[in-house]
Amino acid sequence: MNQAILLKNRPEGKPQLSDFEFTKEDQPEDQDGEVLLKSKYVSVDPYLRGRMRDVESYIDPFKLNEPLESNIVAEVISSKNSNFKEGDFVHGMLKWKEYQTSDGKGLNKVDEDKASLSAYLGILGLTGLTAYISLDKIGDLKKGETLLVSGASGAVGSTVGQIGKIKGCRVVGIAGSDEKLELMKEKFGFDEGINYKSTEDMAEAIASTCPNGVDVYYDNVGGEILDAAMNNINKDGRVINCGAISLYNETEPQTGPRYEGIFVKKTVKMQGFLVRDHVKEFGPAIQQLTKWLNEDKLTYSETVVEGFENIPQAFIDLFEGKNKGKMVVKIY
Ligand SMILES: NC(=O)c1ccc[n+]([C@@H]2O[C@H](COP(=O)([O-])OP(=O)(O)OC[C@H]3O[C@@H](n4cnc5c(N)ncnc54)[C@H](OP(=O)(O)O)[C@@H]3O)[C@@H](O)[C@H]2O)c1
């Protein structure tokens, strides 16, 4: 029998295991024009929380009692589609199922000889693309500037910080443990780190680690950390709104200080970013990321959870900061 994971309830606040349901269904068979896929690595991502709400957004909400989906690397087990052959590896937006069929639309082949399969969900997938394209489009990083990054030891944040170093910036990261700060500095080359969980005054901590102020704030978390960054933003500063994970489980709209004055006085530009709006730039961006990887200018971390049955818990653990780098689930 084939296992699938359905959305059972729309979570209230932090998602719980009881919001998910495991079901068994008949093993699928590929029809003419289709491939039969076996999931190998499943990406769990903070944005999936947004799809669990029944609200209009840039992407349709998940339906109750239907399988969830995310980016997945899968193996072609059999093929009746001339574009794919048995043994190929592909990635694409696929359902949380052990086996599934596909007509091949939206599937991209991946080359295991060029990078590990899981890397196509992270540094060579939407994570790397998000970091690279958003910095390119909005960041306008200049040598010697200060780049402040939140969610800094995570998948997007760790890549953003490294690109900041490649561009000659001073890079300061914000993360949730001293161990993560160590990783940021030792592995990813950040200059300084702030542990937001043990820091009482974030604005002051940013001021002392960014003595020349913040030229670019890369925001993965929103909320009070964004407020504190705004208190340190420089003239002509740029704020990239990539995500706001600190707010994803809130049940009521949150309010904060008013920063209109700072926007005007400091002529700050703040812009939201959605990687899915930039598909045309994926090719050149992947080329650049691959080049940096090959030149050892870029590296990555992964937290690999094992077992199909652990996908929901791995997703929930993102909100507890249990990952270092990209969180993926390996399926046997
Ligand atoms: N706009 C786009 O196109 C796009 C694309 C991809 C991702 N994103 C966004 O980018 C952000 C990072 O995504 P990712 O895939 O790289 O995830 P990630 O950073 O690898 O994982 C999430 C991390 O967020 C931190 N976190 C959790 N709760 C938090 C809270 N309340 N306050 C502050 N930090 C918290 C945790 O690290 P700590 O231990 O440091 O707390 C956790 O490890 C998310 O907001 C995501 O939605 C946007």
Description:
The chain is α/β, with parallel strands linked by helices and 332 residues long. It folds into 2 domains: 2-122 and 301-330, Medium-chain alcohol dehydrogenases, catalytic domain (Quinone Oxidoreductase, Chain A, domain 1, Alpha-Beta Complex), CATH 3.90.180.10; 126-276, NAD(P)-binding Rossmann-like Domain (Rossmann fold, 3-Layer(aba) Sandwich). Helices cover 24% and strands 27% of the residues. The protein is built from 9 helices and 15 strands. The chain has helices at 48-51, 126-139, 155-166, 178-186, 202-209, 223-230, 260-265, 282-294, 311-317, and strands at residues 2-7, 20-25, 35-43, 69-79, 89-95, 99-102, 108-110, 146-150, 170-175, 192-195, 214-219, 233-241, 269-272, 302-306, 326-330. The strands form 3 sheets. Strands 3, 4, 5, 6, 7, 14 and 15 form a 7-stranded mixed beta sheet that branches. The protein has a 6-stranded parallel beta sheet with strand order 10-9-8-11-12-13, with helices on both faces. It is globular and about 60 Å long. The protein starts with a strand and ends with a strand. Bound molecules: NADP nicotinamide-adenine-dinucleotide phosphate.
